[in-house]
Amino acid sequence: MAAKLFANRSGARKDAAWPLSALLICAVAFLAACVVLPVPTPERKVLEGTPVAEEQLDFLSAGVTTKQDVVDNLGDPDLIWEDANLFGYDWVMRQGILLWAVGMGYGGAGGAEDIPKHYSLLIQFDEHDRVQRFERAIRPAMKSYGDFLKDWVRGSNGASAKDEQDRTKP
Amino acid sequence: MIWAAGCASTRLPAASDTTAVDAGEKVIVLLRVVAADESQQRLEPFGSVTADNNISFGLGSFDTGGEPERLQSQRFLSKESRATGWTYFVLPPGLYYLAIYPPRHTDIASFRRSLRNAARWRLDVPASARLLYAGTLHLTGGSNKVIFGGRVLSSIDDHCISVADERDLVQALTGEHFPAWGKPRVALLQRHQGPIILRSPVPPPGQPR
């Protein structure tokens, strides 16, 4: 419980640090004669993969659902971590647009880039190939895929996608 | 200056690499590329000294979730082997995904997007090898004329890439550069299809990184 509280607090601290970091980046960019403006958008546009909704996971039951059931319901996974007996389904949503402009002499350049948010549905199976644990998780932008998987298997990953949805609910 | 003069044309394994290979922690993976343009004229894959080579690579591993990341530089055993298309990597044993890229002709964002669609080749590096030959890639693609004469690749036809086994050639090369390590193992690249397979030991629960 204490660990959970601590994890939530640490997540809140990270959230609080985000606007400051964004402001600093914008300030540095401004001083370097370029403008960078992140514009948040609703998460509607799929940039990559096929999203898996929370409701699609109703068939999953720890100790009951088999690997074959998972494939039958969700299709082939995007990745298989053999040593951990784990399936991963990945998709990327747009969470914002990054507008940028650079001024040079009498000219300049500018553009817009999507700001991605990486989601993964991770499903780990037991030695009998039955579901042991599953979660729709968000992969932090600064974390490598390998570290993300290892942290999840250790049970020490950050917020799940559901936690984040709950937190951002009005 | 060194870059412009092409003096970085060879990057032999460092002492730390050879120590790691001797200890079984890393493997020297050799690969040859034979490239041709749309009219089947041969192009030197790693011949450029003033711009991108005709060919560069992306490598995906457990850390990247199999997603190839573009390698910033390539390594060659000698000027002669570079001219004939040989390159090498020094990698810990494991499963990798190799992508083959043409030179960049667009802005970096468009180029990065185009790399995502490149075909992936599975490279299985066994723990027991010191030297590994991954095959000879034969590829063709579109080309552009360059201002100082000659042509450079502008695209690679992913469907026309094939892998050949030239183990006699690689044995001559490794015999010259690594005589103490014997004949290289052969594990030819396989075109990847289906889910990305990752291999890495599972960390104990709760153990901090």
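qc> Helices of chain B lie at 15-22, 79-83, 108-115, 167-177.
qc> done
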